[in-house]
Specification:
The complex is a heterodimer of chains A (319) and B (128).
Chain A: H1 21-36, H2 48-68, H3 70-78, H4 85-104, H5 108-120, H6 126-134, H7 141-147, H8 150-160, H9 166-173, H10 188-203, H11 214-223, H12 229-239, E1 247-250, E2 254-260, E3 269-275, E4 278-287, E5 295-299, H13 310-313
Antiparallel strand pairs in A: 1-2, 1-5, 2-3, 3-4
Helix pairs in contact in A: 1-2, 1-4, 2-3, 2-4, 2-5, 3-4, 4-5, 4-10, 4-12, 5-9, 5-10, 8-9, 9-10, 10-11, 11-12
Chain B: E1 2-6, H1 10-23, E2 28-32, H2 35-44, E3 49-52, H3 61-71, E4 77-81, H4 86-94, E5 99-102, H5 107-127
Parallel strand pairs in B: 1-2, 1-3, 3-4, 4-5
The chains are: A alpha+beta (319), B alpha/beta (128).
């Protein structure tokens, strides 16, 4: 049998030929779906220890991708397939927690604990979470009772699976600080997860309401008396008003897609993809700092008909 | 030319050394027998290319590649291995492995893969 040689000869923006963060993000979502596909309906996993190792490896991959190109990460998570809310939400939460941890300057070990906790925070309530995401109304009082206490239950389950990291376990236990006894201060990692969880829930569409825009979600968080302004400020700064992957309307009537953040939150890098019903043959980069191309508002993803080559728009022409 | 070869089999280390020297007679070749020891070498020595097995004794080859890319992002890494799972191959390529050579291979295959990887990496480096 002859050898199989796969040498890659194309150029890459990342200085690594063949580097394809888009494929890896898809791989992340597929792996996450497999790892989260257990619970009461399937019984306990056959090999809990191996499952936790896989969780750690997946989190490492997400952290790697975040370090390599955070704009691609935000882009992919804004464009993520929401048909499985549970999968999408957990991947998004890990990513966002990693971003916040980096900005807060958390040591690597703490960041690892945080991201592992973010992925496993709801292990005891997977089925209910999936049902909630699909129902046509807000959570019912009965469901609220079922959800109450899922943090401590998830912690207990993880301990049964062999997790011993105290930071990981405490963050899972306390990630809904409203259930903590009066006077108890939520731990730092749980507080980060809690803020990321709420923010992402706001910007994600539900069966009974469309997604809120990133700036509206941030404003709502800021007005909450329990909000940690330091974390909310990071969320606003990192996701911006118009995060990569979101669609915007320009002053000249075009619809554009945001591809990268810029120093000023209201003037990100965009490509115009259509005007009215006419789809541009090739997306055109627009300078949103110029008046004719200034962003005038958000366009809901469901209103956009044009397909895009996201790799090309983000500068990965070899992919 | 400096090349680091990472295998846990002494016999394969020797074979690969001969193969590399057949194409790069002046190369300095160093060895590591595990993923962790390779990372220790890379902390002190920056080779022009790393050639590794996917099945390392102490860690999964993909996790190891991510660690190398984090620790020594400029160093190109290729794999010469018995692993043939297409999903694994695609994952390694997507993470930036410059080649993935399946066993069995001859000296010429490995030399061609290393040369191709060096060329591709240099071209990418000028863009990045």
């Amino acid at each position: 049998m002859s050898a199989v040689l796969r040498a890659m000869t194309s150029t890459a923006m990342s200085a690594k030929p063949g580097f394809d963060p888009f494929w890896l993000w898809q791989d992340v979502v597929q792996q996450a779906a497999r790892l989260l596909d257990w619970g009461p309906k399937r019984g306990d996993p056959e090999n809990p220890s191996a499952l936790m190792t896989k969780v750690s490896e997946l989190v490492t991959l997400i952290e790697f991708l975040t370090e390599q190109d955070a704009d691609v990460g935000i882009f992919e998570l804004m464009q993520i397939d929401m048909s499985s809310y549970v999968v999408a939400h957990h991947v998004q939460t890990v990513f966002l927690c990693g971003l916040i941890a980096n900005k807060l300057g958390l040591p690597e070990a703490r960041r690892n604990s945080l991201c592992r906790a973010a992925f496993t925070m709801n292990v005891s309530a997977m089925s209910l979470q999936e049902s909630l995401s699909k129902q046509m109304g807000p959570i019912t009082p009965e469901q609220k009772i079922q959800m109450t206490g899922h943090g401590p239950r998830s912690r207990a389950l993880l301990q049964n699976f062999g997790v011993t990291d105290p930071d990981w376990l405490q963050a899972v236990q306390e990630h809904h600080p409203e259930i903590l006894p009066a006077g108890q201060v939520v731990c730092e990692l749980a507080n980060i997860i809690h803020h990321a969880d709420i923010y992402l829930a706001k910007i994600s569409p539900r069966a009974y309401r469309p997604a809120k825009t990133a700036d509206l979600a941030a404003k709502e968080l800021l007005t909450s008396p329990a909000a940690d302004r330091r974390i909310v400020s990071i969320l606003i700064k990192e996701f911006g008003i118009y995060p990569p992957g979101s669609y915007v309307a320009l002053a000249n009537g075009e619809t554009a897609i945001v591809v990268r953040r810029r120093e000023k939150a209201h003037t990100p890098m965009v490509y115009a993809i259509s005007k009215g019903n006419v789809i541009h043959h090739t997306p055109v980069e627009r300078d949103t700092a110029l008046a004719p191309f200034a962003i005038t508002g958000i366009v809901q993803r469901s209103e956009v008909k044009a397909s895009i080559n996201r790799a090309a728009l983000l500068g990965y022409h070899h992919v | 030319m400096n090349i680091l070869i990472v295998y846990d089999s002494e016999a394969i280390l020797r074979i690969e050394r001969y193969a590399v020297l057949s194409g790069f007679p002046d190369a300095t070749v160093r060895f590591a027998v595990s993923g962790a020891s390779a990372l220790e070498v890379l902390a002190q020595w920056v080779p022009d290319m790393v050639v590794a097995d996917y099945h390392l004794p102490d860690m999964d080859g993909f996790q190891w590649l991510l660690a190398v890319r984090k620790q020594a992002p400029a160093v190109p890494v290729g794999f010469a291995t018995s692993e043939t799972n297409p999903q694994v191959v695609r994952r390694m390529q997507a993470a930036g492995a410059v080649f993935f050579l399946s066993m069995p291979f001859n000296y010429e295959d490995l030399v061609a893969a290393v040369k191709g990887g060096l060329v591709a990496s240099a071209a990418a480096g000028t863009v990045g």
